[in-house]
Specification:
The structure holds 2 protein chains of 2 kinds. In chain A, the strands form 4 sheets. Chain A has a 4-stranded mixed beta sheet, with helices on one face. A two-stranded parallel sheet of chain A has the order 2-3. Helices cover 60% and strands 10% of the residues of chain A. In chain A, helix 3 packs across helix 4 and helix 5 runs parallel beside helix 7. Chain A has 3 domains: 186 residues, Isoleucyl-tRNA Synthetase, Domain 1 (Orthogonal Bundle), CATH 1.10.730; 71 residues, no CATH class; 64 residues, Helix Hairpins. Chain A is globular, with a radius of gyration of 27 Å. By secondary structure, chain A is of the alpha/beta class. The termini of chain A are far apart. Chain A has 13 helices and 11 strands. Chain B starts with 8 loop residues before the first helix and ends in a 10-residue tail after the last helix. By secondary structure, chain B is of the alpha+beta class. Chain B is elongated, with a radius of gyration of 28 Å. In chain B, a hairpin with a 4-residue loop joins strand 5 and strand 6. Chain B has 3 domains: 146 residues, Rossmann fold, CATH 3.40.50.620; 118 residues, Rossmann fold (3-Layer(aba) Sandwich); 164 residues, Isoleucyl-tRNA Synthetase, domain 2. In chain B, the strands form 7 sheets. Chain B has a 4-stranded antiparallel beta sheet. In chain B, strands 10-11-9-12 form a 4-stranded mixed beta sheet, with helices on one face. A 3-stranded antiparallel beta sheet of chain B has the order 8-7-13, with helices on one face. The chains are: A alpha/beta, B alpha+beta. At the A-B interface, helix 1, strand 1, helix 2, helix 3 and helix 4 of A face helix 1, helix 2, helix 5, helix 9 and strand 15 of B.
């Protein structure tokens, strides 16, 4: 075609030629009728939906690379459709009240998602411009699956009281609907059907309106500092949740959280979200934190488990970990005292060992302090 | 509004696809206010059904075209199918067989009528399957490589390239599928490892004997020479002398060429120009006789003198026994070698000398080669530039004729004396005959059109232009 183009038009017929790989089966064999290893696409679409198969095919298909096809990919595609659908049902099911003001936590969550959305759009556009199709899909997928469903909606959803959802304030609701609309526009090329259906129902639409001609998101300002703060928030929340789980404390039992920080104003803004996501009974700012502790950047957090904590067991756990860490430290020290290693290994490898040593030292110190507090 | 508890794709997909089509959201026309963004579908076989490869590449096309449409570009995705001459013809032949009709009993027009019937019956399937996938093609622009406008474009290009001196007729070794009775391209040949017998045969001569080893003893009757390495001390006394082919006692020369390796086998090679690609080249170099002993369905013909009418594989077994009986069989060894088979029929490919139409590739491919190498046309991912470079570096003339009926019939017309005129139509050919050869008494019935059709790719390579009728109307 390139040859004929130059012969008969004297110019290039294409700007870009995208080469796909071959779709193979799980064992890497070429699909063929005689092997009977080629699934019927129509059946797949009936089973998983066209959108599910479309995303399933593209989750792991870098240009020019063969696609080892597994029906599980289509299953994952269908789960994606279901995830979108459930999130949509959740939002559309909220009662809206004009009488409540948006909480500071909601305002923060909205500002964060706006930044996260814009940052992801920039990423997606970059992937598209380089024809990294699977990467463009995965960025979009993660934005919806993790950032929207696992984080944003958790932050913004009104509390349940007596089996009933409290109403949401009008501002947060409108912001959520707008996010949903833009997300549908971002995901539309991948999942044209479900995105059209939801897009049509989010708002009143004019006759003959279609998402096919809605503007593709262009992105916008990104507040990097805000994204960083939320990273820390998510890390804190997942630590709180993991701690509960490992100590077998019910997520329903509210716990007090102590914080040691040099800048309490930043954390105060997030305190509503910390309370909501971590089920915290009270946040106090302290000179020294107690209980189970976590160090994130320059802040220290202490989760006071009170009666729920089995002090003896905790002491034993910590002692074990202290012993292990000391052993680890001495093995690294041994390595670093070996001159042949230090002189011959790559500088970055040596550097990594030094970092390991520093980490181990600070961990030992933290464990020793915590043990001292316990007794 | 009540939202269904679970996502129900079937209902939603049908509803919205219909809405998109009713409102012609995917139609496109040139718009000076919008940046154009076009994709032409790599045309699937007209009678094919969707497979996973189609799913992958059409999803990618749809994602790109939908995004472009949302970005405000004039997005145009042209759908269509190609006539897939060999695949469709094979399916129609099978269908007829089931009905008890033999292709050989039909004339060309009757057979092509069946092909069209088949195309109309099954041709829409793959396109409707693409709709189910959600493909946002401009369906009003659907094209088919055998429709009039595209057919004419193909013929125009053949005539044009012939006039430019790029198309010629010549003898070539081709990949012959004896079951489909057609040539197949190198890409349609699948190499399979097969256990074989390596047969050692003694050829006697007045000045000494030679022993050769071959996996194809049934072709010895087509031998034109025995070849040895000029440095090989064992055979110095035989070079230039003759030996006799066993069983038929025909004398052939012993020639010397460093193509033969001293260390390999017995150091003697039987040269069979009609039935082996390398031997064909060697034969050309040494001006050897070409004796084709196989019929189109790979049976031995009368030139073989013995075993005439036997299938090649049957003959292979029989001749070993005959050689043994005649005392010319030295030994037989088990041997594994690669055998080319037809992707379509599975038949073992026969290298065959035949008169075919060729397109010279060197002049034509040069601009494309340069423009891909300097990234004017970008390949994604870039690693395929190496592959492209390799292809273009080793480009061979393209055998464009196929011994089939379903396709674009080669616009070459033969006079009774064998002279050939290339023209768009028979009447134009007649006009040329009259003007050029002053044969005023000639009439159309004195001209016979070439029976062959063109390789499907000879229409596909024009697809990005022909779908917009750009061959016939260059300014379109």
């Amino acid at each position: 075609m390139i040859i004929a183009g130059y012969e008969y038009k004297g110019e290039k017929p294409f700007e870009n030629v995208y080469l796909t790989g071959i779709v193979r089966d799980k064992q890497g064999r070429k699909m063929s009728k005689s092997l009977g290893n080629s699934p019927d696409p129509i059946e797949l679409m009936n089973k998983y939906g066209a959108d599910g198969v479309r995303t399933g095919m593209l989750f792991s298909s870098p240009a020019g690379n063969d696609l080892p096809f597994d029906e599980k990919l289509c299953e994952q595609g269908r789960n994606f459709s279901n995830k979108i659908w459930n999130a949509y049902r959740l939002v559309m099911g909220w009662n809206v009240s004009d009488d409540i003001k948006a909480s500071p936590g909601n305002e923060m969550a909205i500002a964060w998602f706006r930044s996260k959305f814009n940052a992801t759009v920039a990423e997606v556009l970059d992937h598209y411009s380089k024809y990294r199709m699977s990467d463009a899909l995965l960025s979009t997928y993660n934005l919806i699956w993790s950032d929207l469903c696992s984080q944003y909606l958790e932050m913004i959803k009104p509390a349940y009281v007596d089996g009933q959802s409290l109403p949401i304030d009008a501002k947060s609701y409108a912001a959520s609907i707008n996010f949903f609309e833009e997300l549908m526009e971002l995901v539309h090329p991948w999942t044209p059907f479900i995105s059209e259906d939801i897009w049509q129902n989010l708002k009143e639409r004019e006759e003959k309106a279609t998402i096919c001609y809605a503007p593709f998101p262009k992105g916008g300002e990104v507040d990097k500092a805000l994204l960083g703060q939320f990273e820390e928030l998510f890390e804190l929340v997942s630590w709180i949740r993991n701690t509960r789980q490992s100590k077998q404390i019910s997520p329903k039992e509210a716990l007090p959280l102590g914080i040691k920080t040099t800048d309490s104003s930043k954390i105060k803004k997030l305190s509503g979200l910390i309370t909501k996501l971590g089920n915290i009974s009270e946040i106090t700012f302290e000179k020294e934190v107690s209980g189970i502790t976590l160090v994130l950047k320059s802040n220290e957090y202490g989760l006071n488990l009170g009666d729920s904590l089995d002090e003896d067991a905790e002491r034993e756990n910590m002692s074990k970990e202290l012993e292990y860490t000391r052993g680890f430290k001495s093995s690294v020290e041994k390595k670093l005292s070996n001159e042949r290693f230090v002189n011959n290994a790559k500088p970055e490898v040596v550097q990594r060992e030094r970092e390991k040593l520093a980490d181990a030292e600070s961990k030992i110190k933290a464990l020793e302090d915590a043990l001292a507090k316990l007794s | 509004m009540e939202i269904s508890k679970t996502y129900n794709p079937k209902e939603i997909e049908d509803k919205w696809y219909q809405y998109w089509i009713e409102n012609k959201f995917f139609s496109s026309k040139p718009n000076p206010d919008k940046e154009p963004y076009s994709i032409v579908i790599p045309p699937p076989n007209v009678t094919g059904v969707l497979h996973m490869g189609h799913m992958l590449n059409n999803t990618i096309q749809d994602v790109l075209i939908r995004k472009a449409r949302m970005e405000g570009k004039e997005a145009c995705w042209v759908p269509g199918t190609d006539h897939a001459s060999i695949a469709t013809e094979a399916k129609v032949v099978n269908m007829l067989k089931e009905k008890g009709i033999n292709k050989a009993d039909l004339n060309r027009e009757e057979f092509i009528a069946y092909c069209w019937e088949w195309t109309e019956k099954y041709g829409g399937i793959i396109l409707s399957q693409l709709r189910k996938l959600g493909a946002s093609c401009d369906w009003d622009r659907t094209r088919f490589t055998m429709e009039d406008a595209l057919y004419d474009s193909v013929i125009d290009v053949f005539v044009d390239l012939h006039n430019k001196g790029d198309i010629y007729r010549g003898y070539r070794m081709v990949n012959w599928d004896p079951q489909a009775k057609t040539t197949v391209s190198d890409e349609e040949v699948i190499t399979i490892e097969r256990p074989q017998k390596l047969v050692y045969i003694r050829y006697d001569g007045a000045d000494g004997d030679v022993v050769i080893a071959t996996t194809r003893p049934e072709t010895i009757m087509a031998d034109a020479a025995i070849c040895v390495n000029p440095e090989d001390e064992r055979y110095q006394n035989l070079i230039g002398k003759t030996v006799k082919i066993p069983l038929i006692d025909r004398e052939i020369k012993v020639i010397a060429d460093d193509y033969v390796e001293v260390e390999f086998g017995t150091g003697c090679l039987k040269v069979t120009p009609a039935h082996d690609q390398n031997d064909f080249e060697l034969g050309k170099k040494h001006d050897l006789e070409v004796i084709d002993i196989l019929t189109d369905d790979a049976k031995l013909n009368e030139k073989a003198l013995i075993l005439v009418g036997e299938d090649r594989f049957v003959a292979r077994k029989m001749i070993v026994k005959m050689l043994d009986k005649a005392g010319h069989l030295v030994k037989v060894e088990d041997y594994t070698s690669n055998v080319g088979t037809s992707e379509r029929t599975g038949a073992v490919i026969e290298p065959k000398i035949s008169l075919q139409w060729f397109l010279k590739m060197e002049r034509l491919s040069d601009p494309a080669w340069k423009k891909v190498m300097d990234d004017t046309v970008k390949l994604i991912p870039g690693k395929f530039k190496n592959t492209y470079n390799h292809w273009m570096e080793n480009v061979r003339d393209w055998c464009i004729s196929r011994q089939l009926w379903w396709g674009h019939r080669i616009p070459a017309f033969y006079m009774e004396d064998g002279r050939c005129i290339v023209a768009k139509t028979k009447s134009e050919a007649l006009k040329i005959a009259r003007d050029k050869y002053q044969l005023f008494a000639l009439s159309e019935k004195d001209l016979t059109q070439d029976e062959d059709v063109l390789d499907t790719w000879f229409s596909s390579w024009l697809w990005p232009m022909s779908v917009f009728d750009g061959i016939r109307n260059p300014d379109n």
